Amino acid sequence: MDSTLDEMDRRILHVLQRQGRISNADLAERVHLSASACHRRVQRLEKDGFIRDYVALLTARKIGYPTMVFVEISLSGQADELLEAFEREVALVPEVLECHLMAGTADYILKVVARDTDDFARVHRQKLARLPGVQGMQSSFALRTVFKTTALPT
């Protein structure tokens, strides 16, 4: 963790990660700080890039995307141009929630959502298989999400 964060900053970040819509007054009360001091700290944390954004986290099942698939991608090569082309194009696939460059057996691991297995088959055929340099794919379907968080340890 960045050494410019003190314990108060960590407490603020801890609360905001779990309750992004909390009012400044309530946040200040939770971390035992005046409202004005709390507001200044949050502004600094935003300006310094510790807080990147505020978002609404949707329930995938409720909006019609109950199927979660983890896809291991192997590319035909490791040239910078190929990696850059793959990364540029995979970012345009709306069903891909995450893409990670890996060390190990796969070059990339993708987290993909789909409406059902037929929808995933379409995404696989029409989008993922056509990405630059894709040589092989291995897909694993999540049966159930046991635990999920976006909160980093503070």
TrEMBL record:
Keywords: DNA-binding, Transcription, Transcription regulation
GO biological process assignments: regulation of DNA-templated transcription; response to amino acid
SUPFAM superfamilies (UniProt xref): Dimeric alpha+beta barrel, Winged helix' DNA-binding domain
Residue ranges constituting the HTH asnC-type domain according to the UniProt record: 5-66
GO cellular component, one term: cytosol
Keyword Transmembrane helix: no
Alphabetized Pfam families for the sequence: AsnC_trans_reg, HTH_24
Protein name, UniProt field: Transcriptional regulator, AsnC family protein
Species, as recorded: Maritimibacter alkaliphilus HTCC2654
